[in-house]
Fold:
Amino acid sequence: MAIPESFIHELLARTDIVEIVGRHVQLKKGGANFMGLCPFHGEKSPSFSVSPTKQFYHCFGCGAHGDAIRFLMEHTGVGFRDAVQDLAGQYGLEVPDDDPLSPEQKAQAAARRERQATLTDVLEKAGDAYRQRLRESPRAVDYLKGRGVSGAIAKRFGLGYAPEGWRTLAGVFPDYADALLVDSGLVIASDEGGEGKRYDRFRDRIMFPIRNVKGECIGFGGRVLGDEKPKYLNSPETPVFSKGRELYGLFEARTALREQGYALVTEGYMDVVALAQLGFANAVATLGTACTDEHVHKLFRFTDAVVFSFDGDAAGRRAARKALEAALPHATDVRSVKFLFLPAEHDPDSFIRANGTDAFGQAVAQAVPLSRFLLEAAREGCELGSAEGRARMASQARPLWQALPDGALRQQLLAEIAQAAHLEPAGLQALWAGQAPAPAPGAPRGDFRDARDGADARDYADEPPPGWDDGGGHAPYTPPAARGGAKGQGKWKRPFGAAAPRPPAGPRPKPASRADHAARLMLERLAAWEHLSGEEHALLCGLPAPHGPLFAWLERCLHEYGPLEWPQLRADMAGQPFEDLAVRLMAGPPGSATEAEWDAELRDLLDRMLIEHLKAQETEAIAAAGRDPQALARYRELLTRRLALEKKQRG
Structure:
């Protein structure tokens, strides 16, 4: 369900962005604005500006830019709806919906939210008790000191200690029989023998609070002080905690992820805590489960580079293969995924203590890229000296390659797999797609038929011929991975009894302005919005009406519903003030540009728009030089960036 546009405007009108940002960034008055160190990249002199009059923030160093909602999304990692809910709650507003739920559904949703908040309160109270118990236990403190954990790191991660007693929490919560203690995973209720026994889940363990991206305690991990089994124990699945979605240490690592430029994914709580102690505060850990698609998706909301760290033994290789499969759908051309395999006798903590931080940093830099690990996984168990072995390798590579999103990486890997299989890339791709081989150069193509049933050979392709559809009226091509079907299944066949329609003559009219041009490109391929920088988002959303409101609306659609195609966008924007603009821009048939050409066109356009934007900011900085001592420094930074972009354009 969509959040009404009018409510977003009302919420932002009530919001004081200086107050919101100031809770996370130390701000000082500087002229008309407030300045501070940017929370999105490491810097020593403040270049992060918050404007109380314009109600937006902008970093002159990294280009981060937006309103209060975007700040909460970027800084805390939550989605659009969660950011709006959070902001509305701070101002006592209730978020409405254009498509309201029934009264019963609303009541159920409200009850669910209230219960989740109550469970979080219970877990926070238990965490406070565990921290108090740690201070009272010399044995637990000595254990942490023996592992090299300082008091500052223990405080940062909120470490605690669960005593040996079976009912310690009975002294923390007045009603030990409260069902919330069981629902939160703190207490186990046993009906063995019909006596209804209750006891603490965690006993004689170092306690690691697990926090969500908002910093709320949603569960615990406990580690024994000796060699008892199980060594680690996690909270069970609860209404607020799911191991397949959460990562330990992500809340604590948010700033370090931006400063160091990558996330280091490890396998245990102590790895994360020890690495933070040793200078790698960008480490996170899975919670006793294999890396999932949701883990990877969450990480890429904070950084564009992920390094998975595993032991070099067989178990580590199996875990790495799971991580590879989870990461493949997210491995776009602008993201980096690597795999670090340490010697079998080491984990990250012991490796650094034995070899030093520089050696570990070098090992991270030399980690195996996703492309190479994919090829290694495909070759596993294959004898490439024989045709049979190469065929098996190609078969094993197929599902891995098909999981990759379209882009340059996918095409390059196709060429490498084909070379290893002693095939041409086009031939391998046709084989995987179930297509008949292409005719030899110079052979007549107009009446080429598949000998199996006389059907047009293109019936078996993954991409539809121009103007064809899938019988449901959706002419634009949808990749097989996105539509859930397998390749080579005859997806794009002609509707029964219908002739292939001819596309309308002529491409869409040329846009009248750069704003029109950018709007048309985004309407054609909304998914590309996710790959733009924060500065580019702000540039487009800040354009005068109707273009700026159109881009802001498209951004919200993407966060709410994913990358919709034009027919769906057209239906949803009925009645919007920018509807006429969008319909005019999308009139006529689409162009014939390839995806690479489309990307290059968008990049060139945005660079040109950004150059003009930087020129305007330079003028503002010069005008402010008389009253703002930092204005000239901002001008020089803006000038340097603009000249670099212009040099890129000339190149």
Remarks:
- Confidence is low (pLDDT under 50) at residues 436-506.
- The chain has five domains: 5-91, 112-234, 243-364, 367-432, 514-649.
